[in-house]
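Supplementary Text 2. Reproducibility record for the structural model of the 751-residue chain.

All settings were left at their defaults, and a single model was retained for analysis rather than an ensemble. We include the record here because the model underlies the residue-level annotations in Supplementary Table 4.
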Amino acid sequence: MTRWLKHLFLGIVIGLTGVIVHLSPAGIWMEEKFGLYWLFHLRGAITAPDNVVVVAIDQPSASRLNLPTTPHSWPRELHARLIEQLTQAGARIIVFDLIFDSPSAIAVYDEKLAFSMETAGNIVLVERLVYEDSALATDANEQNSNRIVKEGPKQLLPLIADAAKAHAPFPLPKMERVNNYWVFKTDAGDIPTIPTVVLQIFALPVYENLVRLLHRVDPAYAAQLPIKEEALDIEDLIFTLRDLLHNSSNLAHRLKIELNRDANLNSIQKNILHALLNLYSGDDTRYLNFYGPPRSINTIPYHQVLHPDEDEIAKQSSPMNLENKVVFVGFSAATQPEQDIVRDDYHTVFSSPDGLYISGVEIAATAFANLLENKPIRPFPLMGSLGILLVLGLGLGIIFMLLPNRSAIVASFVLISFYAGSAYYFFKEISIWLPLINPVFLQLPMTLFGAISLKYHEEKHESQQLKKAFGYFLPDRVVNDIVRNSGAMALNNQLVYGACLATDAEAYTALAEKMDPQQLGQLMNNYYAVLFDPVKQHNGTVSDVVGDAMLAIWAKTSASSDLRKDACLACLDIAADIERFNHTANQPKLPTRMGLHFGEMLLGNIGALHHFEYRAVGDIVNTTSRIQGVNKYLGTRLLVSGQVISGLDEFLIRPLGDFLLIGKSTPVNLFELVAHKQSASQLQLWLCETFSNALKAYQNQQWTEACDGLYKILDKIPEDGPSKFFLNICKKKQSAPSVDAWNSTIRIETK
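Retained model, structure tokens:
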């Protein structure tokens, strides 16, 4: 798979992962718990609408009115007085977040409350939802039965319920944190909740305009509605409008278009009608757009509304004005006592660390205000969110495909930051909620990890390919330096201890003249395969190949005997392999001479400008080449210096004495490396011992003894080169003794 396909595939995987997570319960939970939290806190508190007010039943009011700390014990006559005060102040709708489902201890108080409610004509009561558990027997003789559990409102006290304009529940989801609410409770028969009922009552003055607009859009639908809202009670009107607008796919949209065109309505009337259409045509569940921490909505203590004494009235700078406002009356979480009552407060995004939660009545007021302002938190459409997550994943994958890792990381953070900033802008300005946690904390880290891992594997594969390619020409250490880009190659040199092997093939020049170049190339490839394998097997490095000659090295920073041992083993293996190679049928023979030396050398990249070669530099290289050349004189195949075999007892060697090589001023003590002692034959052992004795006689100028020993060798091994070489010298010395001072060192005049 090509590189761009891999990154495209990575982008698709990241995008699809974001899509799958967003569709999962875990994804929704993350966005609600963390995404909404950070968006709200980044946005901060905003101004609540001034036509929504909360009257707080709180601890200070209980103290000021000399009432118990349990608000359900407050006399209902007090609530009647509150209604009168609120009505006088111009309140348009009064919502009681109190449950009146049982008679009070003093019946006359219930009557006073009912009278005040009926007189005001604008009271909405909260009722409690309960579960009804019933059983349907499957057989008269069976005890087992099918259970049916239904959710529904608990009946309020009839006297009070009949006096109210409407009543409805306001249940909240049983969750760790309240983020949303129902406008219609599906599990309870699509019953409308308090915010829905209050908005419908608030919109009654523009109801006739709604009917008029519906007549223009579709008269058949308009015929299903009463011309005036007095013909239906509030609950029936709500159900009728819901069925009409919810079941017709585009009726609400057409009404909105007609509403925007209508010149007879002012902006306030249009806003109310838009709120009504959004209520009935939207989802049953809405997200709360909190205005801030507790009491962000204008809150008035209960006792300040009642003005219980003249001193309190005197403190008021001006009469209380609630003209055209919707007033919610209920417990205040900010000052509820910690004990003695059932707390009616909830954990939200703005809950304080000290445990201060938002009260239920303020949440109800917030929900209504959101509907009235047409500013609930609206999740971005599902398909749009999925598309964004998919495109983000693809975009991140493409960024890492086009740019180097560092630049790609910066670019990906810029992209995600831009997206997060856009999400914040949409949330703050138009209350649109885009996915935040998924892209920032899931897709981005996955992309970083996936892209870097992918690039790591790509670079690893490329480095392996590079190593494989350069490995044919350079040692592994040098290849690793190149792959790691560890520095300037011209400066990557090191002084080491090393064994150096030089080889040369006999008759190569003659073969090159006779053979076809292609055949010669194939022959040399096969030949070098025989040479290279033992070098590699014994931890050596082929440093140079020129024509029929090879230079191999074994190097370490310390003069270790291990590398000298490895070099000797490699030489013996090469000799054995060349022997087999030269016995291959239908193939020219390439007898090979080898020279092995040990010492200090400079190992590294030698060259200038734009051309460097990995070389071993130093006297050891020249000396090794000269040692290899001595094989021509002695008729041997494998010569090593005394520096190589010093301290190595596992090899059978034949001493050959000191040689002053051409161009050298210091003699080199040479030995023939014969075999590994464990595999040496009796003939080889006899040869080395007999020749050693003859060499000692030669060095001591005992020519007769030396000749006798050499003759013995030639009798058994007629073609032994060193014996012939030294026998020739001994015979000359025996017949014509030198007058000069004796020196057993043999001088080599040519290469």
